[in-house]
Amino acid sequence: MHIKKHIPNLITLLNLFSGCIALIFVAKEQFEIAFYFVCLGIFLDFFDGFFARLFKVSSPLGLQLDSLADMVTSGVVPGFVMYQMMVSNATIESTGCLQFFPYLGFIITLGSCYRLANFNIDTRQTDSFIGLPTPANALFILSLPLVLKYTDSLMVLEILIDKWILLIITLCSAFILNAEIPLFSLKIKKFSLAANGLQIAFLLLSVLLLVFFQYLGIPLVIITYVLLSIINNKMIKK
Questions:
Q1: Residue 223: pLDDT above 90?
Q2: What is the pTM of this model?
Q3: CATH fourth-level superfamily of 2-183
Q4: What is the pLDDT of residues 171-205, one digit of tens each?
Q5: I need a labelling partner for 214 at 20 to 30 A (CA). Which of 45, 52, 138, 202 fits?
């Protein structure tokens, strides 16, 4: 029992370790490797909670460790990626106030920090989310340099090297993390097509988007998730 108590926290620390490694590769502008280390961190983030519930060893310490690890993997890393994108791809004047423009990318980190702190005290988010979870937002941001690298579309290229559009993406990212928008749960509680129609449709659509659009499919999946949630919320109210 004593060993089991530490397994979830060890997994959480491996999540943090993955985020730290991702930071190194972002600094080297090796965004693809950084993306996969963040994916590993998110994978570990899922399983620390899974094992904590399985072994019945959930604790306040584990909750705090989880948020601190997520702060690096899903908070600092995407902010740093946006900073690097603004430095590397956007045409920014080297004089005046605009020389500090890339630092605005860390607004994503600030928004992530606020969300993680708020999530710990928000009792409404046990089965579903209000606002976009930080791991989903991290995947969205980390996919952007990969879309830029592998895109054949001049329109997409022009969008992702425009400093003002990158700033808009940054601000929207920080907003959607903390917006009072309920997002439908992806958990399938009953094996019923009628009860899980929305989840199944979303998962099928996600597979199609990823197959046909590859890296571009990642931000499309997350945007689709938010839009479907908004539509679903309106239908429920009716």
A1: yes
A2: 0.89
A3: CDP-alcohol phosphotransferase transmembrane (TM) domain (1.20.120.1760)
A4: 999 999 999 999 987 765 555 566 577 888 899 99
A5: 45
